[in-house]
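Narrative of activities, Objective 1.

The group set out to show that a structural description can be obtained from nothing but a protein's sequence at a throughput compatible with the screening campaign. Below is one input-output pair from the validation batch, recorded exactly as produced.
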Amino acid sequence: MNTDERLKNLEEKVGYLISQTEQKNRNKTSLGKIILIGVFVVAAIFIFLFILALITFYTVD
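Output recorded for this entry:
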């Protein structure tokens, strides 16, 4: 009987640790996606400014 109680207690602890690890992994994934989107937005702004500068440079007054 004592062994069954220990086993049940151990299973609860392991289940809790697994759920915490899965939650941390989900948070890391979402943070990575946010950073990637931010990098793409900044890159798009710089590309737009570069194209705008080229247009301005090659226009004939």
